[in-house]
Design a protein that fits this description.
Layout lengths: L7 E9 L2 E7 L1 E2 L1 H11 L8 E5 L15 E6 L2 E5 L2 E8 L6 E9 L7 E12 L5 E9 L1
Antiparallel strand pairs: 1-2, 1-10, 3-9, 4-5, 4-8, 6-7, 7-10, 8-9
Length: 140
Amino acid sequence: MIKDDLKITGHVSIALNDEVVREVPNLVVTDGKKWVADRMADSNTVMTHMAVGTGSTSPASGDTSLDSESDRNALTSTTVTDNAVAYVATWASGDATAALTEAGIFDASSGGDCLARTVFSVVNKSANDSLTITWTITVS
């Protein structure tokens, strides 16, 4: 009997003014797993945006959005290396100014499919700060 334990996991690195301030795992949600299967059949759009917010509810497999989305930006880069995809998004000075505690990856500028969601200890982004999130999804 062949047994293959395919897993999809993620890791989030959050940098404030180019200094990493948080390293956290994420949850690839049910809609995200369905999205991956659809992409294997080339029948879905690619991930294009990342959102940040101020919600604090723990991620759950049924999540389709953030608890309290503050801002959503287009991805600045997507890089595939072996069995991992790294998504990067940046919020410039004056953008997404808040006490941020959650993030997610989506395939649309609003709504859309949610690939993954995470919560983290507060990152206070002031109007003068820049924020970069690098989100790596690994298939193993």
